[in-house]
Design brief:
homotetramer; 334 residues; alpha/beta; seven-stranded mixed β-sheet; four-stranded antiparallel β-sheet; 14 helices
């Protein structure tokens, strides 16, 4: 917020010809230890769909997890931006697709010839939709398969900071050193007002991206307000600290809930999301007390109810304790 | 062929203002016992994709069987024609989705709100990709769910004649009387040179379809050559006789193969396609003798090999006997 | 800015389920004296292109001034959003197309049948690209022609406040009472950080617009930051006062420049833009002194140079005096 | 027709894996004296729009004559196929744009930056919409400008045979030796049933074109029926003889009409179209006698009426004599 206020002082060149946007480019190059092309946009949907349109033709297919955010939560944005591109979803119990799956799918497509969409790109969500995190080795194995067939690799990093914090590696290792060509770097879910950035590590892939952003209405005339947010966000005491806080409280929440009678964690809690099955009475009790979370259908939970809990940079350990205590009390009463 | 030759005589108005096209409209109205709007095109991909674009907006989702021809074999045509529309594939072991599945999927979509594509249409393949045929009751149940949610229903009738022959009902009962709003009526697979037709039973749905066809390059200046083919094709002794021949030889083939040691029919043979699992040695032997068919991966066949056989109006019972005899001899030798 | 800061306090429902967005809807209904459907977005390109996609099919043509912003400055956004829609530009020396032109163009299109795109919509820029303003009578005449042929009417109101201030009529009279169905209400050029709104006066036209916005990546998760800006902007002492200031300084600038030897105003200065032809030496002198403006090619200026000057809510009469004085001094020296 | 009948014999591989399609490729390579990639399709709209989509991105602009067939007669097909591409029409009294015009337009676009669509391609119609023919030198000059800015060049050759016959040069000189990268080779207007071909002289430009054709529904399963038509058409005694007949009768028609009192040829008659202004009474008289032609509005004809006459391979000199005689008699009576 303070960053936006500062950017509001005085009058500056429009459409990105300002110091903030140049500064962001430099900051990200330093952070990722390589030259990058950076394009701030206001929403994660725009970042993902623009990136996918950049790397796949209309007759292309983009491999992804079948429950990926781009498939289920963006109202068909990739298809719209990329002129009818197909998302080719692969199953994965924990949200992480495997290199062998990808290889088999590409081989099948190639055997079908012109009737099948052309294998065109791979997109991975990091952290995943199930709160898990791909290891660098897993990303490398997937990217190796993709590259062997000429497919560029995109990472949907709506929760990239949480994943990075979880991996404990450098931003470079988590991305281009593991084979990522273009990253949707999310900030909105981790504290920004409205700011995401499409970051190209492979400069050849960014050709004309500026016009693609403009044609889709995502070039701000006062772009400095986006860039300033991202610059402020990328200070270590902001983005990494925020993510660390969210991950730590998620881990505490998972530990607390796991101990409840009848509770079962459905996924490894690698970042800031917890998927847990609880007895119906416990879920109802928590809902009645006004706690906010989604019921999240998952296979194999039987009579229990599966829910999704998301922690954020604003979540405190006291919040976690309150929630676990409430759940414990409800469970003991029922 | 003779029909095209006849249409080649003399000089006639272009772009459909000819007697053949008007005649086709009248012939189909008679055949389907209702007023129809008919648009001939040259390929099944065009027919399906134009029909889907007509009934779904770019932000829509079209429910279908996950292995439907529109999903797997048209190189993303529906997404291209409909500006990014999503095909929402539902699983079905025999290629036939069930009304309850559809209802659950629509309810899930509605619960997701604006993030999910809008439930927009239903498309059914008849006969299906697995050689099975929806009964009229099954179509009615699916259409009832669709209509309860305001979704129009399309039928991909690339093998419509085979399905009709199998059902033994009238064209009207197989379509609009069971809730179908628009039909891709295929002729190419059943004898025509290159002719399909998009048939609207619901005139309101056909608004501006003429321009949609033109904009996609599918309006022929010499449209009479398409219409004349379809008119000739729709003579009972052509389309129904062709389909009857194909279905009968398929049934004979199924009966013959079922008796082989180690053989197992994978699907009910309702039309002119047979999916059968055979021992690897038998399949190899048939391939070595030059019989043409595809190996067709299917689940649960173990060490056997699943193949797809398709009969046509040109297939004779002697052809079937030859194939079955060859298979029997190979099996007995191994 | 203060409005955004206030909206930053506390935690609120996302995707528009907040009080700010509801308040904006109510505020605009009051302002326009009718029920409206309002959709905030971040850029004018998005507002225009989404509105056009909503009212024209891919095979449609949208009539506009041939030099309209949507034609020349949005990198093809309408064609992209509307799946290939054609913009049908009509000539106009002052940026204002005439009702008779529109009528002739639609009649020509209709005479061409299916080969021509379908006349689908009309879009007017208010104030225009040449700093002129359509009178309400002019808008009414154009809208009457459009409606007689079933075409909805869009207004690109990037400079709507300036036009309104110039017209001296009510917002209702300037829009729906004159036949406008949907308005791109601009705020960014008149003081907001990044905020435009698509305003539907015809509720039937807004169906599913929410999903169209989402699919194109223009639905903000923290939508309150847009709505809050617009709410603050629409206070009379902000938007109208800002526009009045810009228009008044433009008028003063025009009066001052007109008096210069060799100067000629190229267009009526109705809002906050001045197109003026000046001697080359004067233009060069002003450039050398660091004044910021564009050389703007215009027909019929001979040896003179035409430039575009834009005043804003930040422009003061002192600024104008400085500019005119500088121009006068340069002119007198040369 | 005979060619299609021949292609109907026996059973052949589908989707182009047949001898006819390979033969066509070889025949065109020989004819054009270079390696080519050839893709038969059924309509000129498909050929043009697919070619344009192949050489321009959605955010691109394609330069053309403002009255080009792709602009006025294809219902927005290029925009649809190329995801919103803009056609940038340049004025030209005789349908032929000039190299200097093109250079100025590209320079203007480049000065506008990201707000303007990207100069992406050039498309020329040969023969033009006004019956004129670009000389090879004119094509070369235009292509040189295009190439200097990195733009590939497409030729809409719906009347290519007529142009070739008029130029008296080789097919190679008329196309790639003059800078054409991709040609829509028309046959339907010059005798074929329904057959056009997209011919790439620059193999690098044809990458993935096969899938683009498939995704748009323009890949025929029985492709041999298109290829066979084209093979038969491209025999010198067919395509060139047909064009020669049409051109010769057009020249005779022009000579005959020019001599009428009050008649004025509006354009040079280079191929098989005549644009002529005649007295209203003469036009009415001809219409009353049942001659088929279009009234074709043209500037500067005063009280006269401009019409378009098109000759074809079926037009005889007797037909021409009849028409001219009738016009002469009507003129002498009035």
């Amino acid at each position: 917020m303070a960053a936006i206020n500062a950017a509001n002082e005085g009058s500056l060149p429009s459409y990105g010809g300002d110091g903030y946007t140049a500064g962001l480019q430099a900051r990200l190059a330093e952070l990722f230890e390589t030259a990058v092309s950076v394009y701030p946009v206001a929403t994660g949907t725009a970042a993902n769909a623009l990136a996918i349109a950049q790397i796949s033709p209309p007759y292309g297919g983009v491999y992804c997890y079948e429950g990926a955010h781009v498939v289920t939560d963006e109202c068909g944005a990739p298809g719209f931006f990329a002129g009818g591109v197909s998302l080719l979803g692969l199953p994965a119990a924990d949200g992480k697709i495997a290199a062998a799956q990808l290889a088999a799918a590409i081989e099948h497509a190639n055997s079908m010839g012109v009737h099948h969409v052309k294998p065109a790109a791979l997109t991975l969500t990091q952290a995943t939709e199930w709160g898990t995190v791909y290891s660098c080795a897993e990303v490398q194995a997937l990217a190796a398969v993709a590259k062997a067939h000429g497919l560029p690799v995109h990472m949907d990093g709506a929760r990239f900071a949480n994943a990075l914090e979880s991996l404990g590696c450098s931003p470079a290792e988590a991305t281009w050193k593991s084979g990522i060509d273009v990253l949707s770097l999310g900030a909105t879910k981790n504290g920004a007002l409205c700011a995401e950035a499409v970051v190209f590590f492979n400069p050849g892939l960014a050709a004309d991206f500026e016009r693609r952003r403009k044609q889709s209405g995502h070039l701000w005339s006062k772009l400095r307000f986006l860039s300033a947010q991202l610059l402020a966000y990328l200070e270590p005491h902001v983005w990494l600290a925020n993510a660390a806080q969210a991950n730590a409280t998620a881990a505490a929440m998972a530990a607390g809930l796991k101990a409840l009678p009848g509770a079962r964690l459905l996924q490894s809690v690698d970042a800031n999301e917890i998927f847990v099955a609880l007895p119906e009475t416990v879920v109802q009790g928590l809902e009645r007390q006004g706690f906010g979370f989604y019921r999240w259908p998952a296979p194999g939970v039987g009579a229990a109810v599966s829910i999704r809990l998301v922690t954020s940079y604003l979540t405190t350990h006291a919040d976690v304790d309150d929630f676990v205590l409430a759940a414990t009390q409800i469970a003991s009463r029922s």
